[in-house]
Amino acid sequence: MSTTRQLAAYASVGAVATFAHYAVLIALVESAGWRAVPATLCGYVVGGVVAYILNRRHVFASERPHAEATWRFALVAFAGFCVTYVLMSLFVDRWGAPYLPAQLVTTVAAMFATFALNRRWTFG
């Protein structure tokens, strides 16, 4: 699959994972009264599980054993988790931005940061 098609598929899978992430984020902020940063980190973990399953099967068609791909994906996801933490802390806690627009910007930044790593290292 070409890089352009793979990036499009990655973004499509990302949309599903992002839906799961945002559902947890919004539920924790609006219903449970959590602060945005811890809520988005919980959502990120849920979205990460969804992303691993769908990316392995539909985007990268990886034959790398789960025992190896899982820890690699987790390490890349942790990098995205750190990007999410830093950006959301800046946008929401420091600059007072509304949490959902801040999360949208953060999601796009994390997607591009993790695509290349997952393509080449996790599933490649």
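(ticket continues) Second input and output from the same batch:
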Amino acid sequence: MDKKASRAVQIIKKIEYINIASITPEGLPWNSPVYTAYDKNLNFYWLSWKKNQHSINVRNNPNVFVTIYDSTQEAGTGSGLYFSGKAKELLNPVEMIIGITFLYKREKHKARAIKEFLTHYPRRVYRFAPEKVWMNGDSDINGNFIDIREELDLEKIKENL
């Protein structure tokens, strides 16, 4: 595995929050950080109140952009991942159980009963499936640092999670 793909895997394993960029029904940008967990296929899961703006946005438009940035690094040395893909509210109980299991395993909390997510519980289970991934890269143009994005092989990252 190349150096960038290896760093991408490290970031995914280390950073517990993703930032979801979605679009409001009025066409305005909306960005929300959410606690997340992922599976071997690099599907990211989170729980959110069904009336949060990003939850409404996902129901209206599944196209989202997600970032994960390792802000634990010194200024100018951190790495970030950028994903484009589709997000959705999970309504199928089997899919919901899968998402909740990954979340509570990472969070180390006892899982709520699935029926709560289907009835009175105000939070819902969501999943983001990335279609493309990029990482910021360093480039030097005539002695000037330029931050660029380099597309990575999503399948290589999945293989090494």
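Agent notes: The beta strands are 17-23, 29-35, 37-38, 44-49, 63-69, 80-89, 123-141, 144-152. The first helix runs from residue 3 to 14. Closing as not reproducible unless the customer responds.
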